[in-house]
Write a structure and sequence with these properties.
CATH architecture: 3-Layer(aba) Sandwich
CATH superfamily: Nicotinate-nucleotide-dimethylbenzimidazole phosphoribosyltransferase (CobT), large domain
Order of helices and strands: HHHEHHEHEEEHEHHHHHEHEHHH
Number of domains: 1
Largest sheet: 6 strands, parallel
Shape: globular
Helix content: 40-55%
Length: about 375
């Protein structure tokens, strides 16, 4: 599945991009007046090989959840059980990602790809098949997909986090989820993640693929104190020295220092790119996974849209390496898919311009 997916990923379509650029030049606005939105819409035309590209709707958020053996190194004060507890919160509709998804009209799929703790009972809102927003309107309830590869990774500070087969299984889980969501009608996929301790493997992935120092790739995650932050940097540095992962071997990098949710997110991106559907990236977990996807298939970058600039420093290093500019910068560091959801209207607006704005000729407006 992985190899066939990679083989299906192609470069952006140049004729469609030229057509989109020319269309922008005929719309009733000064040339270039929409700034980055124009570049984004042109790129999405290239991805779809159509001008105008299809509207990126409906939107589907995929939250991949996993736990991490490196938790034993004291890189976070949060107990590992919180991963499973937050999944229950997602399913009950009570997390920030749920509030933003209801606002955006996006579906939420939670995928257990590597949670260590047995999951709590599903909350009533998820069982009922409906969730309510503040106005009393109803939308489809979040759903849970059980695809656990193993009960959390091994401790990357001591040994490889995963075997190659486990890493591949997680990547292919992400590919399957992308296919299922797209087959169900999704016009854009949004990345989400949950996993206590997951910014440590994210930092390791960023350092491997960008070449930045572990101190530049590592952030404070949930807001750790100075001693914990220093320990976290030391753990990442020691793990890279121990495993010496080769960025030319992305599956090997995932096995050495990755997380199951990082691997699955890389698969989601690859699966969407193969189907020429855009992926709106969230924070540092997503962009570290995007580095993996780009190492597997450089043309996959054409399907990536950077939703926001995470407060985690590794996110900026990763976006710089990928050549992606974030749409918004609000100092967010929550994860879950929250930043991607806030950026979604920007993406939709960029495409809607090409569909709905009149040309100078059709509107009878004089050009300069």
């Amino acid at each position: 599945m992985l190899e066939s997916t990679i083989a299906a990923i192609r470069p952006l379509d140049e004729p469609a991009m030229v057509a989109a650029g020319e269309l922008h030049g005929r719309l009733t606005k000064p040339a270039g007046s929409l700034g980055a939105l124009e570049e984004l819409s042109v790129r999405l035309a290239g991805l779809a090989a159509a001008c105008p590209p299809p509207l990126p709707e409906p939107a589907a958020v995929a939250i991949f959840a996993g736990d991490h053996g490196v938790h034993a190194q004291g890189v976070t004060p949060w107990p590992q059980e919180v991963t499973a507890q937050m999944i229950n919160n997602f399913l009950a509709g009570g997390a920030v990602v749920n509030a933003f998804a209801r606002q955006a009209g996006a579906s939420v799929t939670v995928v257990d790809v590597g949670v260590a703790t047995p999951l709590p009972p599903v909350a009533p809102a998820a069982q009922s098949g409906a969730a309510t927003d503040g106005s009393g309107a109803h939308s489809a309830a979040p759903r849970l997909v059980s695809a656990n590869v193993r009960r959390g990774t091994r401790d990357l500070a001591v040994t490889a986090a995963l075997t190659r087969d486990e890493a591949r299984a997680a990547v292919e889980t992400g590919i399957r989820i992308a296919r299922e969501l797209i087959d169900a009608g999704a016009g854009i996929l949004l990345t989400g993640d949950m996993g206590i301790g997951n910014t440590t493997p994210a930092a390791a992935l960023v350092a491997v693929f960008t070449g930045v120092d572990p101190a530049e790739a590592t952030g404070r995650g949930t807001g750790v104190d100075d001693p914990t932050y220093a320990r976290k940097i030391d753990v990442v540095r020691a793990a890279l020295a121990r495993h010496a992962p080769d960025p030319a071997d992305p599956l090997g990098v995932l096995a050495a220092v990755g997380g199951l949710e990082h691997a699955a997110l890389a698969g989601l991106i690859l699966g969407a790119a193969a189907r020429r559907v855009p992926v709106l990236l969230d924070g540092v977990i997503a962009v570290s996974a995007a580095l993996v996807a780009a190492a597997f298939a450089p043309d996959a970058v054409g399907a990536m849209v950077a939703g926001h600039r995470s407060a985690e420093p590794g996110a900026t290093a990763a976006l710089r390496h990928l050549g992606l500019d974030p749409l918004i910068d609000l100092g967010l560091r929550l994860g879950e898919g929250t930043g991607a959801l806030l950026a979604l209207p920007v993406v939709t607006g960029a495409v809607r311009v090409l569909h709905e704005v009149a040309t100078f000729d059709s509107a009878g407006v004089a050009e300069k």
